[in-house]
Amino acid sequence: VLGLPLVDARQLGDTPPEMLPEVQGLSLRFLKQFHLCPVGERDGRLELWIADPYDDYAIDAVRLATGCPLLLQVGLRSEIDDLIERWYGQGRSAMGTIVETADGDANSSDDIEALRDLASEAPVIRLVNLVIQHAVELRASDIHIEPFESRLKVRYRVDGVLVEGESPPAKLTAAVISRIKIMAKLNIAERRLPQDGRIMLRVQGKELDLRVSTVPTAHGESVVMRLLDRETVVFDFYKLGFTEEFLPQFRKVLEQPHGIMLVTGPTGSGKTTTLYTALSQLNTSDVKIITVEDPVEYQIEGINQIQAKPQIGLDFANALRSIVRQDPDIIMIGEMRDLETARIAIQSALTGHLVLSTLHTNNAAGGITRLLDMGVEDYLLTSTINGILAQRLVRKLDLANAER
């Protein structure tokens, strides 16, 4: 095949050789799915045994994940699968090994120091890191960690659909949740009230920003982590799916000197990304742009971005009162959550500012209904609303690998 000899995976022992650190970024699921296995380093290249040397997608994925030049060797699929199982079947699945070595059963403990110690143990740290790593490999937007009576359920939202992952037993609930709360700088002693936090970390060479939300449930605290990959996001209308027919109309609304432009849709539909893309288009040297967000998801050079902090009284409404005294041309509000924020936004639009914001409604017409329901007067809406865009995040078919 390709002039390469067929290697015999059976000649290798049961213990994998010392691997390059970059190989740790390849999951067991990925190795099994594409029937490939890194076996070592030779002449400055990563030696990769693979069943299908024509699988450019898998080869490029390994090259991208490891950052190493590859030396390809071809083997039988059955032998490579057997090698993967012998070398990585238990160690790389990690979840089972970690669970066996982790101490648990602290779910009912009120000893905060004991919880802190448990959350700081190496197996628990590895387990949480593994969950986050899997989310990155799956290109998930959210991680859901939900406690139940018999297990700690782990799910990932991939392309808008929840996919269940490997779940640890219920005995590790307190340790895992406490570990995440420590990483997010939350109060691990507070288990009765919801909390919000943030984790900044580097995974597989990527700078990740995780928004963490906890809420108490019957069997413990449920955690949801929203993953924001600052390095891969591209603020481009065409890549967001805007068509040639629609984009000129949308740009015409954005070019208005004053008024309100709203983007609506359910949670996770890309509303904030659309607003960031609009701001990046409007961000010129002769325009001052100020945003108030909770949280600041992406930092854009040349734009003044304010992090809302409700716990100290800096909510959207209070921040907006200060913003209008900063002589802005364009104001972006992360979300119109209440009547006070909506009224200040409308007053800003009436006094010559362009205001961009989001609303949680199912369609564009629902945006008007939502504002009226908040208590905004209808005559103010007719005077200030330039446009309302409703959007959804739609799964795309991979044409290269789709079955015909």
TrEMBL record:
Keywords: ATP-binding, Nucleotide-binding. PROSITE patterns: T2SP_E. One of its GO terms (cellular component) is plasma membrane. Residues 324-338 form the Bacterial type II secretion system protein E domain. InterPro entries: AAA+_ATPase, P-loop_NTPase, T2SS/T4SS_dom, T2SS_E_N_sf, T2SS_GspE_N. GO terms for molecular function: ATP binding; ATP hydrolysis activity. Belongs to the GSP E family. This is Flp pilus assembly complex ATPase component. The gene is cpaF.
